[in-house]
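Ticket opened by: R.M.
Priority: normal
Category: complex prediction / small molecule

The reporter submitted a protein together with arginine and asked that the result be attached to this ticket for the collaborator who will pick it up next week. Submitted input follows.
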Amino acid sequence: MSAFALPNSPLAQPAEISSPSFLLCPPAHYGIHYVINPWMAANVGAAQNTLAMEQWGTFRDVLARYATVELMPAVEGLPDLVFTANAAVLRGSMAVLSSFRPLERQPEEPHYGEWLTARGYDVLVLPRELHFEGAGDALFHRAQLADGHSAPLLWLGHGVRSSIQAVPFLEQHLGVAVQPLRLADKRFYHLDTCFCPLDRGYLLYYPAAFVPESVAVIERLVPPSHRFAVADADAEDFACNAVNVADQVILNRASDELNAWLADRGFTVHETPTSEFLKAGGSTKCMTLRLDEM
Ligand code: ARG
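Result attached by the on-call engineer:
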C-alpha cells in the first residue's frame, strides 16, 4: 500500500527533522475562490492579500521562537495549500496522506506527498474513494489515558470531511489506537476547529460541535480537571484551533475565561490575529503540520 517506501525505522523521525518542528506554506496564492465550508460562503473574493501575508508572517515569527519552521512553496491555483494541517497525519517516519473530500482540494495531494517523500517520510496513499483530511481531523492525545490503551491515542473527527473507514488504515500504518468522534455542525467541519489536545493531557473542546455520544466519550476519557469546554464566542473565534508547543499556546483570540484557565495550568498564550484566514474557515493550527510527531 505504501507508495514510496524508504529505509527508515518507522518510529524514528526522518533524519534531520528537529524537534519541535512544523511545516508551513506561505499564503502567496491564498484566497477564497470557492465554497467548501460555511465560513467561505460569505467571503468569496474577500481575503485581503497584504493583511493575510502580514498575519501569517507574525504568526510564523511567534512560532519560530519555540520551534523550527519548515516551508513548502505556495502553488498558484491552490489557495488552501496554506492549511498544511490537511497534508497528512504523521507518526515517526510514517505518513498517511490526505485524500480530500472536496474536489477543489484534491490537486493539493501530490504537492504534500512529494514534500513528505523528499523529506524522508514513508507515505501511505489511501484509496481515492476513502476520505481523510490529515491532521485537520486526526489529533494525538498528549498524555497516556487511564483507559487501558498502551498505543498512543489518535482522536479522529469524522462525519463531515473524513470518513470513519479511515480508522483501520490509521491504526495499521501508524501503530496507534484511534478513537472516532462524530462531528455534528458543518461550521466545525474539521476536528481541529473544535477540539485541541494540549501538553500534559489537557484538552479544549466545543461540545456543541459533536454528537452527544461523542461528547460522552470525551468526558469519560478525559478527567474534568483536564478539560475546558469552550463557549460559543471562543469557538467562533477559533480558539480551539490553537498551536501548542510545550507550555506555549498560539491562537487567534481567547476570552478572559479561557486565558485564565490556560494560565492556571502553566500555559502562556500568544494571540496572533488571523481574520483573513477565518474567512476560509481556518486559523493558526490549520496553518501548521507538526513534523516530529511521536
Ligand atoms: N478552506 C479550507 C477547507 O475548508 C480550510 C481548511 C482549514 N484546515 C483545518 N485543518 N481545519 O478545507
